[in-house]
Amino acid sequence: MCALRAANPMRVRPTRTGGGTFAAASAYRRAVPATGDLATRVTGYVVLTLDPAVPDVAADYWMHSERFYRAVAGPVADRLGGDLAYRRLAAHPTDADAERALAARVRVLLDEDPALAEELGGRADVADDNVYINYFRGPAYAPDARNADLERLTGLADRAATRPDGRGDEVLVVVPISDRDGAGRIRNLMACLLALRDQTMPSAHYRVTVVEFDDRPRWRGRIEPLVDHYVHVTGHGLFNKSWTFNAGVRHTLGAARTLCLLDADILVDRGFLARNHARFAEHGHDAHLPHTEMLSLDAPASDHLIEERCGRGSADVPLGGARGLLLRDVPGACLWITPELYERVGGFDERYRGWGGEDEDMLYRVASAGSVLQFDDVFVHLAHRRPAMRREDGQPFNAHVPVGTWTGEQGYGGLDRPARVTGTDE
């Protein structure tokens, strides 16, 4: 999949303004001060080889990137593998203090061996340009952030200002949710919704719809005060994100000029809606991905950035206190699209259930039917317990779905059940 994305068969046109290497890309640019120290970069690649969360975050990204990680980290393991600092990080790869200790040892090693420093610098440059999962830790990261749990978010929501009624004819934001056990997604959704209430775009110009997939409207009481529309679809078994998006668009579109289809775990900045809505007029396209990079935060960084954005009211999502895995060219998380193109492609393919595939499928069909751009924002993804990513037999959940074949002719977005295509549903 990474090789296909690198070849850009979907014809998504980038509008990047960043530097030539991934290390100089936007997440690093926007953290103050910037982190360009070679020892820090090299130690980051050691973390990527040691942390078991890296293969889990995106299997195809890991398969493409692993050899580049090891090209940088291998010489460090050869020289310092027996060192206490290395062994401590190997035992605790998410320990920021252990990481800093190893970075200090690597810095000494590179100062003592300029030839090794030159070699690793070259390898890191190559890796920066090729990996699809990088590592990021802002200079102000601390693992002792205030716990931004559901109780904390509920308190913030209770104090949030009410939104004036408006037609919201400029933008409709649709956010799906399924959280049967309160394992983090409802907390993340509430943070997402609080950030969407705090926007430079006048509140009368946009509306927010949340569609809950569950056997009952489990979180309606928490969600409804923060949104313009709450929709419940009776869902059992694996989450059907495609159906929830389609139901939200189909039943709450109104006269909106643009659609923002946003995952519930994304924490946006204050200018998010105004900036992305304006991009349509500036560039004349039909759809776009706002982001080139997505920073998948660890739990302490999630707590910290929720508190900064939703508790303290920061206009931005300050990356200086962040830590996580930096994913490149993620096809999901958010899609901005005109209602006309959404209707033309028949919305998302409702045959996709469980994790994976629906975003790539939608992007493939959208780019075949209209013009699609990609901008270089950094998206911040809040931590939650990861869902199962494959079936019990090891196969992807949606391997049976033929990519790019959905047309919507059979209908989409009904409230009673997902649409079906004869011969391809399981």
TrEMBL record:
Keywords attached to this entry: Glycosyltransferase, Transferase
UniProt name for this protein: Galactosyltransferase C-terminal domain-containing protein
Protein family: Belongs to the glycosyltransferase 2 family.
Organism expressing this protein natively: Amycolatopsis mediterranei (strain S699)
Pfam families per UniProt: Glyco_transf_7C
Domain Galactosyltransferase C-terminal stretches: 332-371
Record Gene3D superfamilies: Spore Coat Polysaccharide Biosynthesis Protein SpsA, Chain A
Biochemical pathway: Cell wall biogenesis; cell wall polysaccharide biosynthesis
Keyword Lipoprotein: no
GO MF terms, alphabetically ordered: glycosyltransferase activity
